[in-house]
Write a structure and sequence with these properties.
The complex is a heterodimer of chains A (about 325) and B (about 325). Chain A is of the alpha/beta class and about 325 residues long. Helices cover about 50% and strands about 10% of the residues of chain A. In chain A, helix 3 packs across helix 14 and helix 4 runs parallel beside helix 10. Chain B has one domain. In chain B, the strands form 2 sheets. Chain B has a two-stranded antiparallel sheet with strand order 1-4. Chain B has a two-stranded antiparallel ribbon with strand order 2-3. The chains are: A alpha/beta (about 325), B mainly alpha (about 325). Chain B: This is ABC-2 type transport system permease protein.
Chain lengths: ~325, ~325
């Protein structure tokens, strides 16, 4: 009986105390959520900055920046040239580490500029010793009307949405060009209007070039400013439309113009390298492009990564 | 009034004697180590991948979420959820605060966030669902009602005992998850800043109200909100146990309602009147963390109002039915 009394006392005391505490918390929470008091964030926040581990000598720290190519869209294994480069570097016992892959589908030069202003990206850049950049394809091939959408705002070439249909139809001529670009039959495209075949004229391709090239220069400048030590490898463009008769010549011209503009910029920096890909894909599009006819497939990425490994070593 | 306290005491003793509360403690003691272990594995893996640099990890999470925004197949609601999530992560990154600093306190905070809408209500039900129906199943209700005590007092004492145990359950969830996860992650971390006050409007987050609170204060606020949710669930389960004769049926009714709630929150965005159901409104802690509500138009005052109405209705129905009904067996 005495035991029961003791139990009752402790249970009632604890529960009443807990109830009061929880009610206080409840009132406080409601007040805080309904009427939040914003505060100027002062330096009072504890600096829990764990000092980054210093790089082991000879270890390559890779950071990838850019568009869907950096992300690896079209590679069924999901590796892209970034992971494949990493694999290539570590294969013979070399030390390499991937800090992060900041590739975003559909990113344009303007989008990358915004992204470079982000603290997290800058932080990752400062840690890197090798920066792989792939950018510009979306500026060139996807019309300038997209630029306003900012980062990843528009539907990318939708590598994730590859339909087997595009593959099955085989001959590219049988597929409506608009559908080819999106990687799926155009009837299924329900999202915002995308640049179609009509805009892929030589003039349109070249029109976007001067502005985009200027932005590319600024981007590389920014990267060098954030981390002057890092080696920057810029992945040149290839012409994904070489198998469409009307687009072969203008596409080649535009891509060559872009690559030479990029080369002009890169040559002014001592620790930057342009990794050409034009020759890897020219005349081999059916072998090295994925079913969306825009992004490389696994083998295509493998070829790019071999080039990059050669450049880094 | 004088004979209420002995009645409440009597009911408390009954709950303790039935060992329901110990079962709840046992469930917690078994499950929390499992969650802790899972969390530990996640932490280990990301440590391997990102070389224990949380900034790189957060940045990669931001990038991954941005990438998923461009996919046409992802429903628009998920996209806006991710846009909000990105902005919050960015805020943490910009202010150099690790949102997932591993510690026992952080684990407790996340555990409470995840358990508010299903796990804790289930624990509450374990006590609440057989308070009245259990007496009917065993026939002891007749003994209780033949005493010279008015019926509403009997019911009131049961309800009071229930509310006492609700507080105890919320408290023990906190204490047990803190003590056990502390073994793995350390017991420090009460002063780590957590950001709250994200005001959501559509896709964008209004950062003007954002402020940092030390984690202990955040836990206190969380506890308060969870307590409110638990009280409402307890009252509803109590009502069901008054209405339904068998304990099993009463548990099934409440379980079905709660599970329906979790399913609905995942897919009800298009059916906006679902927001008047109590089970969709259980995730009160989401308002604290700044996660978007499952259905557009839900705010904290709205959810509180909905829950209060359901809770009050449950009280009224329980008393009306219990005092009027004939007890036959």
């Amino acid at each position: 009986m005495k035991d029961a009394k003791w139990t009752w006392r402790s249970v009632s005391l604890i529960s009443v105390a807990a109830t009061l505490l929880l009610i206080v918390g409840f009132v406080y929470a409601v007040g805080d959520i309904i009427n939040p008091q914003g505060e100027a964030l002062t330096g009072s926040l504890p600096q829990e900055t764990a000092a980054p581990v210093p790089a082991a000598a000879g270890e390559v720290k890779i950071l990838a920046l850019g568009d869907s190519l950096a992300k690896g869209t079209g590679d069924n294994s999901g590796s892209g040239f970034v992971r494949r480069t990493l694999d290539g570097l570590t294969k013979d016992g070399g030390q390499a580490q991937l800090l992060g892959n900041m590739g975003i589908n559909g990113l344009t030069t303007a989008g990358l500029q915004t992204k470079l202003k982000e603290e997290g990206v800058q932080y990752a850049l400062r840690q890197a010793s090798v920066v792989l950049v792939s950018i510009g394809g979306n500026d060139l091939f996807r019309g300038s009307d997209i630029l306003g959408n900012g980062i990843g705002g528009e539907a990318g070439p939708a590598g994730a949405d590859q339909t087997p249909a595009a593959d099955a139809e085989g001959s590219t001529n049988a597929v409506e060009p608009g559908g080819v670009l999106d990687g799926k039959p155009s009837a299924l495209v329900t999202s915002t209007p995308k640049p179609n075949e009509d805009e892929l004229t030589p003039e349109a391709l070249l029109a976007a070039l001067p502005d985009a090239a200027k932005r590319l220069g600024e981007i590389l400048e920014t990267i060098a400013g954030i981390n002057p030590e890092a080696q920057v490898y810029y992945v040149g463009l290839y012409n994904p439309f070489g198998d469409i008769e009307d687009l072969l010549v203008p596409g080649n011209q535009a891509v060559t113009a872009w690559n030479s503009a990029a080369m002009d910029i890169i040559n002014t920096h001592s620790n930057m390298t342009l990794v050409p890909t034009f020759d890897l894909f020219n005349r081999h599009l059916d072998k090295y492009l994925s079913s969306d006819h825009f992004h490389p497939n696994g083998d295509g990425y493998q070829r790019i990564s071999e080039r990059i490994v050669q450049a880094i070593r | 009034m004088t004979n209420l306290l002995p009645l409440i005491r009597n009911e408390c003793t009954k709950i303790i004697k039935k060992k329901r509360f110990y079962v709840i403690l046992l469930i917690l003691l078994v499950l929390v180590p499992m969650f802790t272990y899972a969390q530990m594995r996640i932490a280990e893996r990301s440590r391997d991948k990102f070389n224990s640099d949380w900034r790189l990890e957060i940045q990669q999470r931001i990038t991954d979420n941005q990438n998923s925004l461009s996919s046409d197949r992802i429903p628009e609601e998920w996209k806006s959820y991710r846009r909000i999530f990105i902005q919050q992560l960015q805020y943490y990154l910009d202010h150099d605060v690790n949102p997932n600093e591993p510690s026992g306190v952080t684990f407790t905070r996340e555990f409470l966030d995840n358990s508010v809408s299903l796990f804790i209500p289930l624990l509450i039900m374990a006590v609440a669902s057989d308070l009245v129906s259990g007496e009917r199943t065993t026939g002891t209700i007749k003994m209780l009602l033949t005493r010279p005590v008015r019926r509403w007092k009997v019911l009131f004492s049961k309800m009071a005992a229930l509310l006492m145990f609700v507080s105890l359950i919320v408290l023990s969830v906190f204490v047990i998850s803190y003590l056990i996860s502390g073994l793995a992650f350390g017991y420090k971390g009460f002063n780590i800043p957590v950001f709250t006050g994200f005001q959501l409007s559509g896709d964008t987050v209004d950062m003007s109200g954002v402020h940092s609170v030390p984690q202990w204060k955040y836990l206190l606020m969380q506890g308060g909100l969870i307590w409110f949710v638990s009280v409402v669930v307890a009252l509803l389960a109590f009502m069901v146990s008054v209405l339904v004769r068998s304990t099993a049926a009463s548990i099934v009714v409440m379980m079905a309602a709660l599970i329906a709630g979790t399913i609905l929150t995942n897919m009800a965005a298009a059916w906006s009147t679902a927001k008047y159901l109590f089970m969709v409104n259980l995730g009160l802690t989401g308002y604290l963390a700044g996660t978007p509500a499952p259905i557009e138009g839900m705010t904290l005052p709205f959810s509180l109002a909905v829950l209060s109405v359901w809770g009050l209705a449950a009280i009224i129905i329980s008393f009306a039915v219990f005092t009027k009904r004939d007890i036959l067996n």
